[in-house]
Protein: Pyrimidine deaminase
Organism: Caballeronia insecticola
Amino acid sequence: MRNFFFLIVLFFLSQWLLKKLRRANERAQQGDAQAGSATAGNGGTRRARTANGGGNGAAAEATPQLADPLIRCVQCGVHTPRSESIVVAGERFCCADHARRHANRPTGRDAR
Ligand SMILES: [Zn+2]
């Protein structure tokens, strides 16, 4: 009798796992599409973050680690997840402070 019960639990567990795997696959594809549009503008990353924090619980759950590659900060060289990095003028930074510092820094043309 105990074995029978165990089998039922196992069955539900495998079903749940399969569903989860399929969802993860779908979300990974969606995440790629979102990431592509996010790189288009400066506000992209910020907008994506607020969307996650908002009422859409499914989106907050759908942050696959594979679709969030590490990015090197141009100012300090620290590696940050892309969702947390800031893009300014095509350069990526770990925080707004470093983006400002990099912008204030004289360009090579002016220094010479
Ligand atoms: Zn930095």
About this structure: Residues 73, 75-76, 78, 93-95, 98 surround zinc ion (CB under 6 Å). The chain has two domains: 1-64, 69-112. The two ends are 84 Å apart (CA to CA).
